[in-house]
Amino acid sequence: MGNFWAIAGAAFLFLPAVAGDGTTAAALRDKALTDPTAWKVLESLSYEVGPRPVGSPAYEQARDWAVAKFKELGFTDIKVEPFAKPSWKRGAESAEIIGPHAQNLAIIGLGGSKPTPKAGIEAEIAVLPSLDVLMAAAPGAYSGKIVMVNQPTVRAEDGAGYGGAVRARYAASEAARRGAVAYLVRSISTGTGRSPHTGYMRYVDDAPKIPCAALGVPDADLLAYLASAGPVRIRLKLASTEQPKTTAWTISGEIKGSKHPDEIVVIGGHIDSWDSGLGAIDDAAGIAITTAAARLVAGLHPARTIRVVMWGSEETTGSSVAYLETHKDEVPRIVAVGESDVGADRIVSLMLPSDVAAKSVLAPLADLLAPLKIMISREPVRDAGADVEDLVKAGVPAFAFKQDASRYFDYHHSADDTPAIVDTNQLNQNVAAWASLLYLLADSDVNLRAKPSSASPN
Predict the structure, then answer these.
(1) pLDDT at residue 12 greater than cutoff 70
(2) Contact status, residue 238 vs residue 213, Cβ threshold 8 Å
(3) What is the mean predicted confidence (pLDDT) over 438-456?
(4) What is the reported pLDDT for 354?
(5) What band does 363 get if pLDDT is binned at 50, 70 and 90?
(6) Over pLDDT 70: what percentage of the chain?
(7) CB distance 257 to 303 below 8 Å
């Protein structure tokens, strides 16, 4: 890391002064490592509100919880911003093998799935080892069957295995095009637990809309084993209801800037969750980390305003577009944006905008983050989070702390997403990193926006 900054050093001669106060930031970082705020916020949202899918009574409770929590922690200018979107509600669900022998299966419907008929669907299952096999099949290849894609998710520190596997969760329409009457997918999980993992799915307009669900990992392997020896029949029952228009809310609170209140650093996480677990790592953790970091920085009366946002609908989409629409006039004044939404395990790196100058003015970060065992990546940020992507497209500079995601997808979208899986030391390492960067951004005149080229046109 030292070598990188040394190489970049020549550029420093042409850049603004160093951001913020490194000594103050270091003291702030160290204080964050023992601060209990993040754990208390995570615990409160997870246990006092619980699962909070959009359209549910608990989701409305989460809105009120957010307002009360912001007030309790000293935030001001608290806003509740509604936006319309559809909602989906799970009903009773079951699946069982009925031949060659009877056995219940652990399943969970995918968000947005159509229900089965009340009596269920009974059919032979076609087990495919990968999505590629399904995509290569001809139309009608699985006519009258229930198709299951049994593609494992590769464990990786950067979570890359999830991106490769999650495509199978969206493949119900592809199965329908090939004649399937229902679609099952091995949970997009790096673990071996039997709890199935849900998630959002989408249909395409030019294919039948068939019911779809995820199987627990051991149950997917069971079906693959049995199907390798001969025909397997299962019965699937999924109930659900949809509401074409409901109300979602994004809630925010601010630490008002002492010198430049119109310049804003926007951070946060999403307040909605799936209904299977308590939404502790997805994403009470993100809300807890960013709220705790902002509260710590508040005591230093930063020059710029810090806004913590609890986005209202990440799991079933909509919050990013809605937020930009509401705040489009602020885009030129938003200094930077970042979201925490990969759980509570340790941060391993920080990705910044691609402009070299932007990195150089934040040079104190190398020394600040080193004790936390965080490196500053040579790669520019590419994905800052689903809830901020439209702000980024509109030109707001983004940063991204990359966490160790090695075990995140063991629990993601499952009943095991509870505070029990949160390591408080790693949680506070996140808070320390966020507070360090947040202070340098908010108590300085750092400009992360790419500077226009000064070259004259030919």
Answers:
(1) no
(2) yes
(3) 76
(4) 76
(5) confident
(6) 92
(7) yes
Residues with Cβ within 8 Å of residue 301, at least 6 apart in sequence: 258
The strands making up 347-351's β-sheet, listed across from edge to edge, are: 375-376, 347-351, 400-403
Q: Which residues partner with 124 through β-bridges?
A: 233
Question: How many whole angstroms separate alpha carbon 335 and alpha carbon 383?
Answer: 17
Is pLDDT at 348 greater than 80 in this prediction?
Answer: yes
* Contacts of 57 by beta carbon, 8 Å cutoff, 6+ apart: none
Q: Judge whether 208 and 140 are in contact, CB under 8 Å.
A: no
- Helices within 274-416 (DSSP H only): 285-298, 319-327, 356-360, 364-369, 389-393, 408-411
Name the token pair of 205: 């307009």
Residue type, 432: A
Question: Domain 101-231: which topology?
Answer: Glucose Oxidase; domain 1 (3.50.30)
Q: Does domain 2-86+245-442 have CATH number 3.40.630.10?
A: yes
Assess contact for 235 and 120: CB atoms under 8 A. yes
CA distance 22 to 278: 38
Q: Do the first three CATH levels of 2-86+245-442 and 101-231 match, i.e. the same topology?
A: no
Candidate list 93, 254, 263, 314, residue with the active-site label:
314
Q: What beta strand segments (E) does 6-75 contain? A: none
pLDDT digits (tens, 9 = 90+) for 115-166: 999 999 999 999 999 999 999 999 999 999 999 999 999 999 999 999 999 9
**Residue 455: what pLDDT?**
43
- Rounded to whole angstroms, how far apart are CA atoms 365 and 26? 10
* Residue 314 a catalytic site member: yes
Mean pLDDT value across residues 322-335: 98
H or E element, residue 124 = strand 121-128
